């Protein structure tokens, strides 16, 4: 792993969006806010994302795409980029994990892993 790759931190906060969910229809909407911190001394650019989403029934879905929320942000040294997105599950509990493909200022591509995080409705045991 390059020094730049090891200097990228990904923090996640999740929320259940009850007002837009319909448990009777097996529709549970969750938002997630991601903060990507560049702790290196050079600019990095987020090129693409890859998510693996698993619900409580073991159903997996994968999402690939350019950038995040329609952007391919460049993150300056010692700064952060934050965005909020969402996903719908058929169960009140699930897990997401993935990775970002990033490029450093020298044009070197690297992966920034996103550790597994939990999506759950309030009241479920952690």
Structure description:
- Strands 3, 4, 5, 7 and 8 form a 5-stranded antiparallel beta sheet that branches.
- By secondary structure, the protein is an all-beta fold.
- It is built from no helices and 8 strands.
- The chain has strands at residues 8-16, 28-38, 44-55, 60-66, 74-75, 79-89, 93-104, 109-120.
- 17% of the residues are buried.
- The mean pLDDT is 93.
- The chain has a single domain (5-120), classed as Sandwich (Immunoglobulin-like).
Summarize it.
With 126 residues, the chain is mainly beta.
Low-confidence stretches: none
CATH topology: Immunoglobulin-like
Q: Give the termini separation.
A: 32 Å
User: What fraction, in percent, of the residue positions are helical?
Assistant: under 10%
Structural class: mainly beta
The gyration radius over C-alpha positions equals 16 Å
Report the mean per-residue pLDDT as an integer.
93
H/E topology pattern: EEEEEEEE
Q: How many distinct helices?
A: 0
How would you classify the quaternary structure? single chain
Strand composition percent: over 45%
Number of domains: 1
Under CATH at level 1, the class stands as Mainly Beta
Identify the overall geometry. elongated
CATH architecture: Sandwich
InterPro entries: ApaG-like (IPR050718), ApaG_domain (IPR007474), ApaG_sf (IPR036767), Uncharacterised_ApaG (IPR023065)
Organism: Shewanella schlegeliana
Domain ApaG: 2-126
Pfam family, one: DUF525
